[in-house]
């Protein structure tokens, strides 16, 4: 066992403690001595036993207050942790909702593009069909009629061009 000399009030005491605890014992004795000095300063000379009792009670009261405050702070911390957890859950829900909205928007835009593309495809198919019909008609005409028709079209183009100038 290790021995430590501590001063409380106006007296020095020798206290035994486990090796390595000397500093802690000195610190505790310093607090007890400081409280004893406050008591001696406020009420004057007091018997040693009463002085130690009063100093111990004062320190015990402070310790109780600190423990109560600690419990309140622990409760507040738990409450704040719960609020943080709830906010994280809400944040995750909002993020998921935003992703869902983006997906729906993207799907709607894709559908619009497909509808437009299908509309263009329908128009182009119609034009192709008409061109094919014209080719069929053109291929079924006799060669003389084609030549006359081409000649008439050329004459008309020439007249249209002269009118332009």
Give me the Rg, rounded: 51 Å
> How many structurally independent domains?
1
Major sheet size, sense and barrel closure = 2 strands, antiparallel
Kindly report the average pLDDT value.
Answer: 87
So what's the oligomer here? single chain
Order of helices and strands: EEHHH
Q: How many helical elements?
A: 3
Which residues form runs of ≥5 with pLDDT under 50?
A: none
Task: Please identify the structural class as seen in this structure.
Answer: mainly alpha
CA(first)-CA(last) distance: 126 Å
Strand content: 5-15%
Silhouette = rod-shaped
Number of E-state strands: 2
User: Helical amount among residues, as a percent range?
Assistant: over 70%
Strand line-up of the largest beta sheet: 1-2
Notes on the protein architecture:
This protein is mainly α. The chain has one domain. Helices cover 83% and strands 8% of the residues. The chain has a two-stranded antiparallel ribbon with strand order 1-2. Helix 1 (22-43) packs across helix 2 (48-140). The mean pLDDT is 87.
How would you sum up this structure in a few lines?
The protein is mainly alpha-helical and 165 residues long.
Features:
single chain, mainly alpha, two-stranded antiparallel ribbon, 2 strands, rod-shaped, 165 residues, 3 helices
Reconstruct the topology from this structure.
Elements: E1 2-8, E2 11-17, H1 22-43, H2 48-140, H3 143-164
Antiparallel strand pairs: 1-2
Helix pairs in contact: 1-2
